[in-house]
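Figure S7 source data.
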Amino acid sequence: MTAQLIDGNALSKQVRAEVAHRIAELKARGVQPRLSIILVGDDPASQVYTRHKVNDSTETGLAATLERYPADLSEADLLARIRALNADDSVHGILVQLPLPRHMDAHRVIETISPAKDVDGFHVASAGALLVGQPGFWPCTPYGCMKMLESIGFGLRGKHAVVIGRSNIVGKPMALMLLQKNATVTICHSATPDLGAFTRQADVIVAAVGRRNLVTADMVKPGAVVIDVGMNRDDAGRLCGDVDFEGVRQVAGWITPVPGGVGPMTRAMLLVNTLEAAERATA
Ligand code: GUN
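Tokens for the predicted guanine complex:
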């Protein structure tokens, strides 16, 4: 048996086309959806990510502005700028690229963003809304994983989902989203002994740790859905996930590749959240 591929590139294209359509509708009633991105310092990866976010936005009809500040910007000045954007009705989404320079308290910075504009879904109000099943913004990576499961028509009700990783931006929200769809959810992490004993029971595995070859074929139940959130480099410097793709694809029913899986979906869901923010603000 060879797993079917869940193609994040193809699915993200569909999502972006839907977003573009809804943006056109907003524009037809005089609303220009707008995303403000703040980048502090010159971290090379952050520069690439924020450039992608701007390009993705403009391609779908969102107006995106990237504000760049030097690494020695004071936290007080950053908070003042965020408050000004909170008060600006023409801005619907605010994203502060992480990591921030060490002299800043990232938590305080994120909490300063208005929850109504928190398109990353990182604010405690967004996390709390997800916890209790209220409308809010879902973090883009787990949201994209849910879209992937939806795209293959995988009914989660009563299924056992094993999430490996407990970060605030992937593992924990992922578990809550799966729970909301009536899956039975197990969260595994670095202190979990015998990870395979858990994953072998899983109908769905979401690997979000950041360790290459964490999930191998012997750890996967035949036919299971395997979603790989990992972003690592192999010995040859090639991008790879947390899952031994070649081995696991022989056992799994569905699998996401790296690259071309969760990554493009994460990018697409930021556009969905920003559109959603604009629609809510102007409804
Ligand atoms: N740094 C790496 N990924 C992200 C992300 O999704 N959002 C923000 N704000 N910073 C990041």
